[in-house]
Amino acid sequence: MAMEHLEILVRGTCPVCAASVVPAACLEEAELLPCPECRSVLVVDRVEASRLVLSEAPQIEEDWGE
Amino acid sequence: MTALAIFHSTVRLEEKLLCEAARAKGVPVALRDIRTEVLDPAGFVRDFDVALERSVSTVKGDYLIAFLESIGAPVVNASAVARACEDKFQTSLLLHRAGVLTPRFALAFTLDEAREAVARLGGFPVVLKPPLGSWGRLLAKVNDEDALEALIEHKDVLGTPPQKAFYFQEFVRKPGRDIRAFVFGREARCAIYRESAHWITNTARGGAARNCPVTPELRDVCERTAAAVGEGLLAVDLFETPDGLSVNEVNHTMEFRNSEGPTGYPIAGAVVDYCLSRAKGEA
Predict the structure, then answer these.
(1) Which residues of B touch A28 (CB under 8 A)?
(2) Among A9, B27, B120, B274, which residue has the fewest nearby CB atoms (within 10 Å)?
(3) What sign has the CA pseudo-torsion B157, B163, B165, B168?
């Protein structure tokens, strides 16, 4: 399924520390962003009703790279 | 119908730059997360002209490319190119066979054979690399026998099966930098020096990028490298040696966030143009 380019008048909640997360710029689904409080690396799962659904980003795996 | 589908896993800055470049050119583009796809040839609806594989996961990218090629969809890079580049031993073999200057290398599976490989490469220091890997991760400069024994034992005990193939390269003494060239098809369009006081110069590890002129020698080496591994979108890493430019490795899903500024070359836009030319059968 094609991902949509997201507008950013939205915010989410850090799944680790419950901080409010407001992206600083336009973002895409599956993009990484840091939690401003606990510094966990988060990933944008989707947007639901103008709310960002965030989860902890996957750890780097053995086959990751360029 | 979308002109360009960018298949990704985690979205990096590069994928965003590629989207921006496509949109600036008026090219309909879609970001598609490989992890949400079902690769079923009977049910897959192709709604794009050409696909660009940008998965951060090599395994997922490989399966996607194989699938798209099987249903006749143009995809960049081709599966043969991905296979040639993702495994450093395969890359070295292809470069060696093609007569492209590359550091001496050897692969071994046990400690005794690892010792023999080091001896054949001229002794310590040598570089031990995972055959599959990137971003300078898990590289080891092995300075002596004690370090070799420790590294091999750790990989044997803790490593995954691919980590138990011990790929060695001769240690190349660099002038505090190496070169990354960006190749489109067979043509090197721009290049950077990656400068670092550390022997690992990857910009992902903090190496600084500075423009490197595309000299006739660099252009020629890159053309012969592309002929060896297959034409495509390639990031060729090279060492400057007394014998000439030596190709260290080749990357098939190039990262370029630090390179457009120093080179002044619009890499993202050129990637989009290259993909569209592939859709038309021009490249």
Answers:
(1) 11, 15-16, 19, 31
(2) A9
(3) negative
Angle at B83 between CA B81 and CA B89, to 5 degrees: 115
B31, B134, B251 member nearest A64 (Cβ)? B134
- Residue B44 sits at φ, ψ, to 5 deg, of -75, 130
What's the domain range around B122?
104-170
Residues B159 and B110 in one domain: yes
Write A35-41 long-range contacts (CB < 8 A, 24+): A38/A14, A40/A14, A40/A16
A65 touches chain B (CB under 8 A): yes
Q: Of B12, B153, B139, B130, which is closest to residue A62 (Cα–Cα)?
A: B130
The answer to whether B150 contacts chain A (CB < 8 Å) is: no
- Tens digits of residue pLDDT in A8-18: 468 899 999 99
Contact B135/A61, CB-based, under 8 Å? no
Residues 31-60 of A with CB under 8 A from B: 31-32, 43, 57-58, 60
B83 touches chain A (CB under 8 A): no
For A46, the closest chain B residue by CA position comes to: B33
CA distance B257 to B234: 15
What residue of A is the nearest CA neighbor of B234? A66
In a domain, residue B121? The reply is yes
ipTM of model? 0.75
What are the phi and psi torsion angles at A20 (to 5°)?
-80, 130
- Tens digits of residue pLDDT in B50-86: 999 999 999 999 999 999 999 999 999 999 999 999 9
Query: A25 and chain B: CB distance < 8 Å anywhere?
Result: no
Same domain, residue pair B183 and B260: yes
Top-confidence residue, A60 or A56? A56
Per-residue model confidence (pLDDT) at position A1 = 39
For residue B231, tell me if it sits in a domain: yes
